[in-house]
Design brief:
homodimer, alpha/beta, Rossmann fold, 3 domains, seven-stranded mixed β-sheet, six-stranded parallel β-sheet, 14 helices, 13 strands, DNA-binding, transcription regulation (chains A, B), Lambda_DNA-bd_dom_sf (chains A, B)
DNA sequence: CACTTTCGTTGGATCGGTTCAAATTTTGAC
DNA sequence: GTCAAAATTTGAACCGATCCAACGAAAGTG
């Protein structure tokens, strides 16, 4: 019974068993850390004492202080913890981070919090050797917090506003978005709509280019710039392209489509700033029997695996997610100060959600 | 530049800034931990000193030792770390564990390792207040390791062999499997095949009831017992039902189906011990134009979300995964010793992968 | 038997904080 | 101006280990 949950009392320390076994604490420590250097007779005696007193081995809390290294990397986000398991992009990223960590024997600590106050505290008190910061949302706040810890850290996102001094790995959002826009214009599309990622913490709803230019989140801003720069080159009046800010979930995406398709002049092409948005959009369109790509084409952004099996499979801008994760872990573990910012290439992957304009 | 990666030298401790600010370390500590009790003038002076010396706040390593609680729970598995993000069952479980942790402000540490030696060390040195142990594979070894830490822990699995003393949360595998088997027999099926979860660490291939009875993993054994008990009640000769041991991945499942369908008397009903197995099986059957449920019916086990959107949607035994996660976290955090073992109910969820026997 | 190695053990210093009883200073009341 | 009460600050003790210089005993050498 006592085994179940060894109650509230576990005051048994290394020193206790040392005393019980009649040896110094130094020797007792050696029994666990370097058994080979202590005489067998003594070793057995100490182990027996440990066993008898229900000692669970040297407490890592103590060791840690002296050793210095935790041997774990923290992955932080401003979203709730379940984001790591719910979001397709995060999942792929985490899978590759995991692999890199496994390869080096490092552990992973998930750092997040329900509210901002908690978040700050959790970052300040995370037992890690460094941070990888997911910047999807509330990025700069997080980066600031992480930097205050004065530990090595890498932001997963290339915020063009950020100090050059913050290490970051990301993709060229402007170029990627440009690729998506060009693909659709080349297919003859002229009437566009944009389903945007969050612009600020303010919820969702229709927004404007001006709003987005002031966006808190540079990823959102850069992708829009990329879209519009390319559309402009094809003489499309971007001031008339509706932009709807979503929060990357079903509800806001559907609301966005309701709004966009309520107008007189409905788009034939949708630029979605994430695959998740695009996939939710696909569901909405299917429910209304709007053919994709017959009536409407749509291009996502990210390149998550779900896009390969959607109906229809999603044309998208693929980020080298796995590579990003690998580099991030490497940057933390081999923190030699040489690392700063790295921009990885993106690719247009044409699948079946985009086709010639119906007009 | 020095900001990027503050080099190898960070010998600035609380004591250093205390000296610099001309206060005792006790006061310096208070500035960070309970700012309100120190006079404003002093507080500012200490903060200024900290800023000037590049102090990143009290190191949690130090605090930890005194505080005792880490405020994080460890989730352990014998699989590689990426299992948490790749496996559908694990993902749902982790999502619910995350939610429970978020609600209480606890963090999550993922504990795993590439090899067994590493695993033992990682468990011994994990900085956590307790463990949730995924017992899918190598369960008993893990449970043993976790128990040696003498920390509260819960096994996610009701191994009937385990000591009554190990706290565990699981489902009644026998009853669940029975539900699956009865559903199919009631639809008129008489020719069955079983795609099993791992029986031992030995890889995959055809196996027998006798082998499974000796299985290392009780989940596998109990599910088979459940299937066969029910089939026997319908006068089906279970000794002729082929059993193929998979490792829960595409390759082994496909090999299993190759093997099973190579025989003269092909089954009309497949009992899959996990949804993941069932979903891979669905792919195999589709590729061979074997109609589901026209030619072959299949029932999975777990109730993962992917089963709802497969082609066709999967009939399965649903486990209350979210509830299990919640209870596990609760058991760790409110470790009052009252908890021991808990068996949760499973349900048959009939979707479109099962139908009347073709005969 | 004295003298150097080798082996195993000891105990103090240290890691970086938090805590709390006691000491000190400030404030308020008369 | 005096004294008690309130507000701050101090410094020692402690959290649980690891590390290492020094030491004692046993073994080896001449």
């Amino acid at each position: 019974m006592a085994l179940l949950a060894s109650g509230k009392t576990r005051p048994v320390r290394l020193a206790d068993i040392a005393k019980a076994a009649g040896v110094s604490h130094g020797t007792a420590s050696n029994v666990f850390a370097r058994p080979e250097i202590v005489r067998e007779e003594v070793r057995e005696r100490v182990k027996a004492a440990a066993e008898a007193m229900g000692y669970g081995g040297p407490d890592p809390k103590g060791r840690l202080l002296r050793a210095g290294k935790v041997n774990a990397i923290g992955v932080a986000t401003a979203e709730p913890l379940s984001y790591f398991f719910d979001d397709p992009f995060a999942r792929v990223m985490m899978a590759s981070i995991s692999q890199a960590c496994d390869a080096t024997g490092a552990g992973i600590s998930l750092v997040s919090a329900a509210n901002n106050e908690q978040l700050a505290w959790n970052i300040q008190s995370a037992l890690v050797d460094g941070f990888i910061v997911f910047c999807v949302d509330g990025g700069s706040k997080l980066v600031e917090l992480a930097r205050e810890r004065k530990l090595p850290f890498v932001a997963l996102d290339l915020d063009s506003d950020d100090d050059e001094a913050v290490a970051a790995i990301g993709v060229d959002n402007i170029a990627g978005a440009g690729l998506a826009a060009r693909h659709l214009t080349e297919l003859g599309h002229r009437r566009f709509a944009v389903l945007a990622l969050p612009v600020a913490d303010s919820g969702f709803g229709p927004t404007t280019q001006e709003q987005v230019e002031k966006a808190l989140y540079s990823g959102t801003r850069d992708r829009l710039r990329g879209y519009f720069a390319e559309l402009s080159r094809f003489d499309i009046d971007v001031s008339r392209v509706p932009i709807y800010e979503t929060v990357n979930d079903e509800e806001s995406v559907w609301a966005g489509l309701d709004h966009i398709f309520a107008g007189a002049e409905t788009p034939t092409a949708i630029l979605a700033m994430s695959d998740r948005i695009a996939l939710h959009a696909l569901d909405w369109l299917r429910q209304r029997d709007i053919a994709v790509p017959g009536d409407v084409s749509i291009v996502g952004f990210d390149g998550v695996p779900e896009g390969a099996v959607s109906k229809p499979p999603l044309t998208t801008i693929v980020q080298p997610i796995a590579e990003m994760g690998r580099l991030a872990v490497k940057a933390i573990l081999e923190n030699d100060g040489s690392f700063s910012r790295q921009s990885l290439p993106v690719d247009l992957l044409v699948r079946a959600s985009s086709g010639p304009s119906p007009a």
